Amino acid sequence: MIMSRQDFLACSGLEGQTLEIWLEQRWIIPEPSGEGAAFSDRDVARARLIQELIRDFGVNHEGVDVILHLTDQLHGLRQALSELRSENLGRKPAPQPL
Q1: Is residue 96 part of a domain?
Q2: Does 24 map to a domain?
Q3: Which residues are within 8 A (CB) of 19 and not within 5 positions of it... i.e. 6 or more apart?
Q4: Cβ partners under 8 Å of residue 48, min gap 6
Q5: pTM greater than 0.90 (yes/no)
Q6: In angstroms, what CA-CA distances link 71 with 40, 46, 52, 96?
Q7: Would 93 be classed as within a structural domain?
Q8: What's the domain count of the chain?
């Protein structure tokens, strides 16, 4: 679901000032739209993850950077694996050596 900044703030529980900081740090990267920025459910989930890391686990900003980077890499690898699986479903299996 695509949402406005105000809807995003309401769904994520963030304050506007915190969102501005997170946007500057590129922890949240909304899609550009004609009305400024369009936030998604994925952005809300990411904001909640960041909140939990900081509030519940005491992770500092450098730690959040590392965790988000690794999370993004993991999602990228999962996407690549999914694409490879889809490509291989249409192919015949390679002959096995005797």
Answers
A1: no
A2: yes
A3: 5, 8, 9, 12, 28, 47
A4: 12, 13
A5: no
A6: 17, 10, 14, 37
A7: no
A8: 1
Residue 24 structure tokens: 């500057």
Instruction: Provide the residue range defining the domain that includes 65.
Output: 5-87
Using alpha carbons, list the distances in angstroms from residue 72 to 1, 19, 48, 78: 20, 19, 15, 10
Residues 93 and 91: their CA atoms lie apart, in Å, by 6
Give the tens place of pLDDT for each residue, 9-65.
999 999 999 999 999 999 999 999 887 899 999 999 999 999 999 999 999 999 999
CATH of the domain at 47: 1.10.1660.10
Reported in sequence order, the residue ranges of the chain that DSSP labels E, i.e. its strands, are 31-33, 36-38
Residue 95 placed within a domain: no
Q: In this structure, what are the phi and psi dihedrals at residue 4, rounded to the nearest 5 degrees?
A: -75, 170
